[in-house]
Amino acid sequence: MFDDSWEPPAILLAVDLVILTLRDSRLHVLLIERGIEPHRGTLALPGGFLRDANEDIEDAARRELNEEAGLADVHLEPLNVYGEPGRDPRGRVVSVAYLAITPRLPEPVAGTDAVRACWTSVEDALSSDAELAFDHRRIVADGVERARTKLEHTALATAFCGETFTISELQQVYEAVWGIQLDPRNFYRKVQGARGFIVADGPLRRTANGRPARLFRAGPDQVLYPPMVRTAHVAPQGPNGSAN
Amino acid sequence: MFDDSWEPPAILLAVDLVILTLRDSRLHVLLIERGIEPHRGTLALPGGFLRDANEDIEDAARRELNEEAGLADVHLEPLNVYGEPGRDPRGRVVSVAYLAITPRLPEPVAGTDAVRACWTSVEDALSSDAELAFDHRRIVADGVERARTKLEHTALATAFCGETFTISELQQVYEAVWGIQLDPRNFYRKVQGARGFIVADGPLRRTANGRPARLFRAGPDQVLYPPMVRTAHVAPQGPNGSAN
DNA sequence: TAGCTTCTTGTCAGTTCGACAGGAAGTGCT
DNA sequence: AGCACTTCCTGTCGAACTGACAAGAAGCTA
């Protein structure tokens, strides 16, 4: 495999976080303004290096989640690895990106360590005039794409909601992440028909305007059957190429 | 983020390959018998360290694919990262696992560098009495699970076939990976109904026994619509808990 | 009580799905 | 050739599901 004199190269390991949430019925990602030099002043994903050689990678991700965003107990899953040789001027940095999903939060993220943390709509973050540090633009795009497809066949949507939620709140998640509009009546049927997706949570109620809605909580199953198929069902506005 | 005197820890980066193929109508994974010390003599996934600090991770994966399995031009996609602190006695080794899919090959893999490379049925590799080095058992399980779910909504199945294939060959892929049996007539309808999945490749023919089959090749689309939903449709043998 | 809002239950026609029958097109044997 | 056998492929039928839409239920405000 390799001769005895050869030593494998050492690299630096970082974690980056794509933290998604819903604000104002639109999908947002948390970005911070970098306070240190490579790309100082530009927007980037929260993240950082492994603290020491014994820290577990997912633990590091949760630590950064807490330090930089003040978050705990959120859905967290590995997204991908980004290790292209030239991506970081400090050396060979390999970054493990995680996807985190959180319910809508009280406000602009408290207790953060970073210079400035702000929720940015995904649309803005990915628009061509926004500048993101390193290859973070691609990481954001990958994270959003992951969320989009996982919504179809897993119960990931519930991670965007609080512990209990109404069906129309859940519908807003699908509409925001997919960028389309759905019929509330058919959505009801579908969501309730997927076994183990959501379970009723007491006949409680809520909201202030119309008829009170029933509350649900996440069900036991993660994989949805039948899946929530996303038919090209474009919103009221103009043509919107149903690209692959 | 961190004070100036602090230095991020260096780690060793490896790649591991879960190479799947179909042999004898069953899903197989390529394992090698380790020739060097940590876990010498036990079965493990092909893989190795990054060659130098400038090698791209995916390039390293393709290099190992070639060196250890004699393969090139196969489907290759990132699977996950495995970096738990105690997983390798040599130090802090973080391994990037890739999932590779290849059509059935001429024979037991030629030109390999490893002591012994052998195709093992996934069933055997994951059975409790098989011993795999490091955390490779879990990596194999993750790879198989990834293949199973990607078969549902992507054209991944075509990666198991040669450049051209018949519909029943494609069906065998689904049956082997999912471990269930499907009705050929309904499978036809479904596969042909998924736009962009497969396209006819001349009215050619093949096989030696029954009526010649039409040949197809992979179509332009990777995402399947409608998806190939996997209904619990158990094979002729006994009860088989439809677990999640 | 009327009017507004939002939630929830239905209905209906078109489509898809799973189970199954039967014809089409090769090979090999007598 | 004729027949048995194999595999491929096209159809059919009732059940289940889907998307479009109507109408009732249940709260608030005026």
From TrEMBL, chains A, B:
InterPro entries, per database record: NUDIX_hydrolase-like_dom_sf (IPR015797), NUDIX_hydrolase_dom (IPR000086), WH-like_DNA-bd_sf (IPR036388), WH_DNA-bd_sf (IPR036390), WHD_NrtR (IPR054105)
- Classification via Pfam families: NUDIX (PF00293), WHD_NrtR (PF21906)
PROSITE patterns per UniProt: NUDIX
Q: Which residues form a coiled coil?
A: none
UniProt-listed Gene3D superfamilies: Nucleoside Triphosphate Pyrophosphohydrolase, Winged helix-like DNA-binding domain superfamily/Winged helix DNA-binding domain
Q: Which superkingdom?
A: Bacteria
Q: Nudix hydrolase domain: which residues?
A: 10-146
PANTHER family assigned: ADP-RIBOSE PYROPHOSPHATASE, SLR1690 PROTEIN
Provide the protein name.
8-oxo-dGTP diphosphatase
Give the species.
Answer: Nonomuraea maritima
